[in-house]
Amino acid sequence: MSVTIEARIPLLEEIFSDWKETIGSEYEGYKNHVYRTIHFCLALRECSEEEREKIIIAGAFHDIGIWIEDTVDYIPPSVPPAMEYLKNRNLEVWSKEIKLMITEHHKIGEFKDEMHPLVEVFREGDLVDFSFGTFKFGIPSAYINEVKATFPNSDFHKNLGKRAIKWFGNHPLNPAPMMKW
After folding, report:
1. Deepest of 9, 11, 89, 122, by most Cβ within 10 A of its Cβ?
2. CA distance 121 to 18
3. What is the pTM of this model?
4. SS3 label, residue 180
């Protein structure tokens, strides 16, 4: 496996430019999480340019609801901005797949859909990052470590943990609303 680490992905930077203020002080952490997730996805599957673009778009929006609604229940509010982005760029034909990539990225088990293989690739790529590389799905540890060194955590997981603790205190019967069982 030889996937070049791209320190800057122009499409991702363009999308994020509209969200920097909304994300605020947690911007660097989220941006780096998305860069890591994208790189892990690209290491899992050799992608066409179109597939790569879909992964980048889904990556940019997959957790954005955290900051839109300041919540741990962030999947539902993450979908509308992605759909609006696709609509504004005449890419609505991708809507179903991008929506699935966002809504299913925390599915506990494998997502099986031959029509939308990127959904599982995205789920796995996000899990590689979320698990700090515990789950690898065949990606070499050296590559995971190189991606993590290029895009430091910048308190991304720590900030999620703070929100999760606050959420759990208010919603003890629904401790992980973003998970898909």
Report:
1. 122
2. 26
3. 0.91
4. strand
